[in-house]
Amino acid sequence: MKILITGAKGQLGTQLIEILSRGKSELGPVPKEVKNCEIIPCGVEELDITDLKAVKELFHKKKPEVVINCAAYTNVDGCESNEDLAFKVNSLGPRNLAMASEEIGAKLLHLSTDYVFRGQGTVPYKEYDKVDPVSAYGKSKALGEEYVREFSTKYFIVRPAWLYGYYGKNFVKTIMKVAKEKGHLTVVNDQRGNPTNVEDLVHHLLKLIPTEEYGIYNCTGEGECTWYDFAKAIVTLAKINCTVDPVTSEQFNSAAKRPSFSSLDNMMLRCTVGNEMRPWEEALKTFIENVKTLEKF
């Protein structure tokens, strides 16, 4: 199998390539269909996904069987001040990949986000719930989903949330660093969601791609918490001497509005390839144990 990965140098893309290379994730071996696959890694230097002509030319030259789109503009506040760039990368980029994938008969696995939902409910969102984003980032990702559905017949749209992994910057690493340096943190306590370990996410992405179980999937850690709960758990598990105090989103005065409740239910995983996502506390514990051993912090 030949797999082309966009955003290959980011947090998710880097760990995806590593898991494919070692043939297993923390949850178990990768499917036999993707073992020893040919990986075509594409950072922005190798492929600008916003350039339709370049995308089509590369796809026709390399002829991947599967495309995994990890490329995105994920600066939520930055999307508010640079809306054109957000929609160019997060909407037109997936459209271009969908059109080019369709031309060569490739499957497209596109990574989306929990931010496509308004986030005012109290029950975890299922895949059939209506998207209704409140930020430029969420709106650009929602349009990206729409384009993928419109221009591809063989697609998987996967929605992770609150993602953290061994590579790049993320909330867990930031909390550990700042907690050690300052000994005191203030973290918002009025936004609820699902912390998600990249190992768990990649394990399920690789379970999906050999199949024809096309459609939309939520893929997040089991259970929910607030960012404050998350930070408290990080500090406790990392055994850092630090106090953590709750604050409101209003006190943070961010440029972009965040969903107050964006918890997702992995219903379609349960109904198809199976939901093996770990409880978020268990996945976090393993991550913190490993991040020091692997010296990736």
Automatic annotation (TrEMBL):
One of the record's GO molecular function terms: dTDP-4-dehydrorhamnose reductase activity
Keyword Cell inner membrane: no
EC annotation from Swiss-Prot or TrEMBL: 1.1.1.133
Pathway the protein contributes to: Carbohydrate biosynthesis; dTDP-L-rhamnose biosynthesis
Domain of life: Bacteria
Identification of the protein by name: dTDP-4-dehydrorhamnose reductase
Main enzyme class: oxidoreductase
Organism of this sequence: Clostridium punense
